[in-house]
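Final report, closing paragraph on structural work. Over the funding period we assembled a curated collection of sequence-structure pairs, and we close with a single example.
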Amino acid sequence: MPRIFLVEDDKEIAKNLAILLRSEGFSMIHALTQREALDIIEAEKFDLALLDVSLPDGSGFAVYTAVKEMREVPVIFLTASGDEISVVTGLNMGADDYITKPFRPRELMARIGAALRKSGQTQATFEIGTLTVDTASGIVKKGEEEIFLSALEYRLLLVFLGSRGSILTRNKLLEELWDAAGEFVNDNTLTVYIKRLREKIEDDPANPQIIRTVRGMGYKIEE
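Its predicted structure, as stored:
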């Protein structure tokens, strides 16, 4: 699952972006200030940085410099509408893109996707056995037949695909799904959604080979 590093001092914008990114199959780590951002850069890994230019204790340009010193990841600046100077400065520094506030969610996701694909940080198509998932188009096929998943089933599948080779606990799955598709997911409904997803993607849902149960720990998709 691609991880986005957001540096944004507006808590409401950050909250809405967290919901949007999770619903699109991303995880997010957030810093409110330049100081917090610099600490995170040293301690955490991420696939793309989304940086607000104006911060209460500094600027996104300083954060950009720190990111590029330690990480080979794309950077997109968030700028105020009409702030041409910031746009030019960011692009001259080597930023991959910029987007002005207020922005449209679809446009932001398209820019993030394009930057990740250009940098080779994301994989557009996954194949597991006879199952093919094209995340660019949202199409899931079993062999040559298209499978139709609900928004939450598709989100659940993306979470598994983004963590291939790792064990996902039920708590982790609930954390990733809590806001997807605007539906409330608890431990009981998680069991139902996993069952429904297996019925659609597994050759033998009673003996699943894609989403495997790791007894006493959670679930896992092999690399």
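The mean pLDDT is 84. The two ends are 13 Å apart (CA to CA). We thank the funder for supporting this effort.
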